Amino acid sequence: MEIWINPACSKCRSAISLLDAEGAAYTVRRYLEDVPSEAEIREVLERLGLEPWDITRTQEAVAKELGMKEWARDPASRERWVAALAEHPRLIQRPIITAEDGTAVVARTDEAVRNALGRSQGEGSSTAV
């Protein structure tokens, strides 16, 4: 299991605390430092079952500068959104947990974190990447 976090984010810290309390084995990815490629973003979107605009933080200053609220949300525009997320990782909703069963969740609530835990197997300690 891997969790994409921004350490400054309270939701991310809360998710990490819950994973630790449950004894979960996971890897931390600080995605602002270890920026995901477009291919990795596409893979996570597939695992989430979402579109890029579904995980975009449109209230961020860069999103406003780019005018993203006005961007089309259709298949023809998908790659434009993915490219923007790769170029500006701060726009990616967080935390995202990729579970061992091939799925992923945007883990902004304790319930979502527990959902990801239920999909993953194994116990152990965390490791930072």
TrEMBL record:
<keyword id="KW-0560">Oxidoreductase</keyword>
<protein>
    <submittedName>
        <fullName>Arsenate reductase family protein</fullName>
    </submittedName>
</protein>
<comment type="similarity">
    <text>Belongs to the ArsC family.</text>
</comment>
<dbReference type="InterPro" id="IPR006659">
    <property type="entry name" value="Arsenate_reductase"/>
</dbReference>
<dbReference type="InterPro" id="IPR006660">
    <property type="entry name" value="Arsenate_reductase-like"/>
</dbReference>
<dbReference type="InterPro" id="IPR036249">
    <property type="entry name" value="Thioredoxin-like_sf"/>
</dbReference>
<dbReference type="GO" id="GO:0008794">
    <property type="term" value="F:arsenate reductase (glutaredoxin) activity"/>
</dbReference>
<dbReference type="Pfam" id="PF03960">
    <property type="entry name" value="ArsC"/>
</dbReference>
